[in-house]
Structures are given as C-alpha cells and as structure tokens.
Amino acid sequence: MMLWPKFRALALVAQALVASQLWTIVDAKSAVGDRVLVVIEPALNQASYSHFWQSLEARGFKLTFKGPKEEQAPLTEYDENKFDHLIMMAPTTTSFSSTLKPQRLVADMTAHHINTLFVLSPSISEAQRDLAREFDIEFQERDTALIDDFHYSPASSKHDQVLLNISSGLDSETPTTIVPSTLRTSSNPILYNGIVHTLGQNPYLIPVLHAGETAFSDDLTELDEDELLDRKKKTVISGEQAYLASAMQSRGNARIGWIGSEAMLRDDSWAAKVEDQDGRSYTTVNGHFAEAFTAWIFQEKGVLKVIHTEHHRVNETESREMYRIKDDVTYSATISEYTTENGQSSWRPFSAVDIQLDFTMLDPHVRTSLHERAVTADGQATEYDVTFKCPDRHGVFKFVLDYWRPGYTFIHEQSVVSVVPFRHDEYPRFIQGAWPFYTGAFLTSAVFLSFCGLWLYSVEGGNKVVAVKVQKTQ
C-alpha cells in the first residue's frame, strides 16, 4: 500500500518531463531542430563569445561544446542525426577526430542535411582551406587579412580592423531572408578583422558580404625582398571580389555559411563603441548581422513547405491517374513559409508571383505560372492554382513543381499521370477541318460515275451496223 504514493510521484515527474520537452519543441525557433554542436579549438577562449552563445540560447537552441579532436558527441550515429546544426570554430586546427574529418563532415552535411557555420581567421589552416575548396570557395593564404586605409579603427596600426558599412558591403544578389531590410538601412558599421575569400562557379553559392571598394587583402607579416617579390606577382583581391561572408544551400536544403573572422563574434566586437579614422563614434552591428546570418543558416526563416498538391479535370474534384489529350486540367498547390519575426516563429502564407508548373514528358510540353488564389482558412498557407489544356500527345507525363530561389529552401514536387488518346468511339463523326477532303472525295466519285454513264449509253451518230451472211461454196 505504501508503493502507490511512490508510483504517483514518479508519474507526476514523468508528466512534468514530457510537458517540459513539449514546451521546448514549441519554443524552438528553428524549423528542423534545436540541437547545436559547437566545435571550438583550445586556442580560442569560449568565454570571449558569451554574447554569441547567449543569443543562440535565447532563441531556443541547446548548445553542446567539444574540441576538434574529441571523439564523443558525433554528428550522426546509427544513421540518425544526433545534432541538427554545427558551428565549426577551429580555424587553425590541422587534424580532427574521426567524426569530424572533412570527408565525413561533407557526407553528414549533404546526406543528413546538417546546417553548418564555419568561423575562420587569418591563421587559417590548410585543412580548412581544402575543406572550403570542396564547395568552390578559395580562402586567401595564411596570415593575410582585409586591410582598408580609408575606413578603419585607429586601434589597429595595420588598418586591419576595417569598418564596413552594410549598404556598401552587401552583394546585389543577397536575399532579404539572409540580411533583412532593417539591417540594410543601418548607418552603423561592421567591425571586421579577418581573412577574405573568393567564390567560384558553384551555382548553389550565395554571396552575402564583400569588402568595400577601398579594401584589399594583404599579408600581415613582414616579408623579405624575395617573399615580397613573389607576393607582388600574385593577384591582389580587393573590393567586390573579396568576400567576408558567404552562404550555400545544397540540393537537400542543408545550409552552410562561412565567416572569415572569429573576432567578429567576440564580446568586444558584438556591440562595441568604436571611432573611425576621423574621430566619429559608432556602435557596431556585428551582433545584429551574426543573429540574422545564423537565423538563416539554422533555418529560422526562409523555409518553404508544400502542404498539399492536387490535380483534376475542370468541373471535377477528384484526381485522376489518366487524362485524355486536350482535357482542361486544374493543378493546385498549398505552400507555407516558416519565418521568425520579433522573436515569434510560425508558419505563414507565402506570397510569390514566379512559381511555375511544368507538365513534362522528358521535355516540358506545358510551362505555366501558378496564380495566387487565396489564403487557407487557418491563415498559415497560400493556395495557388492554374488551368491548362493537356497537349495533343499521349504518353506518361509528370506534374513538376520546381521553385529554386536564393534565400528559400528548394521546392520539388512531382506526380505522374498518363495522357491517352481518344477511344475509337470518342472521335467526332465528321471532323470540321476535313471538309475540303470530304468534298473532294464526293466530287471525284460523282464525276467518275457520270463519266461511266455517259460512256455506256452514248452512240456514235449516222453509223449503222449491217450484218452480212457469207455462204460457203464448194
């Protein structure tokens, strides 16, 4: 009898744990999960980035810290994700644990869709440069940094603490989902002290932040005459060619970001009071940029989801597996967007005018735009539809909904149907376009019959046939 209170207490504790877990799920801002693995090398002081960690924890993320050579806490185990996101702050590390080796890391990011942020520095190792080359990104050589002799903080004698205005550093192709409009119009600069990189031809790369027109990449160490001569022979990276931050989204919607300055995330740069070379005071927006950049990488915004698709004949409601040529077909899709605004994350209606539908059989036979019809009753999605005529060609076709826009997760939905010709008893008795052929056939038959009649019943005039009987004589 004394066991009942203990069981009741255990039940209450279990209920409380379940409730807390559900609350955590609801409170999480990311659309894919809140588990973050932070790999930070011993050379970096974890306490120096407290504002960055607090910003992530305030947004509902659970941080797990480990060293680059520690074997515990793998990203995946038994083909299941143990973490949803990864922050790699090991710019000088040359060797990693078996679970963080470049080959394993690339496989986890692409196959298991783990969102990753790489934070680097001018002391970048060759291993990190090689890993970036896997994504067609080329970081400058070790001990080089961005220098600007016209926009810098006087605290640095080498002018490598660059003050970059957001409006002049944003790339023209940077989506608003990565850098919001409120940050684009800010007059306060970013304090940047780090390395730069260039982008290749990878179509999945998204340029985010580049250097100003007066900034360039140069060596921070003193060189002798031979080294200086070799350096002058190399191409100088400057202006819009020198990128400070870039991003990429894989085909599986895994998001990856690169920042070339770990000092950019330190507490003394997060919202620091700085002066430029002319003595004017500013408050850096490093913290605002880091929050916006990580919010996109960790899929707190710009996430699209297709809730429902359907297709049917006009004036019908049920979908078919088989349509007839020249049928009028209506295709509809319900799309929702996951975004975070003012600390609130939710699924909301998605509005766009460039969503296309392809009706394909090897090649698109019909390509048309979807039109926004209405917002769903729950106010969380938008319904799109379009009506088109099936092509005059039978075969196996696919409804393909592809939406690939920088800054949003990629959408790819398809459904297979058959398009068949008319049955033998479904064709019209007489085809309107064939009346000239019908007329020609009837006229040819009539003329031929008339000619035969005239030929059979006509007699040559004035000629008589006389039969002569000849007798045979002996």
Could you please describe the fold and organization of this structure?
The chain has 474 residues and is of the alpha+beta class. The protein folds into 2 domains: 26-297, Rossmann fold; 303-420, Immunoglobulin-like (Sandwich). It has helices at residues 3-27, 50-58, 102-111, 126-133, 166-169, 181-184, 225-233, 267-270, 286-297, 435-457, and strands spanning 35-40, 62-66, 76-77, 80-81, 85-89, 115-119, 137-139, 144-148, 162-165, 189-192, 197-199, 205-210, 215-219, 243-249, 255-259, 273-275, 281-283, 303-313, 322-324, 328-341, 344-349, 356-361, 363-369, 371-375, 382-389, 395-403, 411-420. The strands form 8 sheets. The chain has a 7-stranded mixed sheet with strand order 2-1-5-6-15-14-12. The model is unreliable at 1-27 (pLDDT under 50).
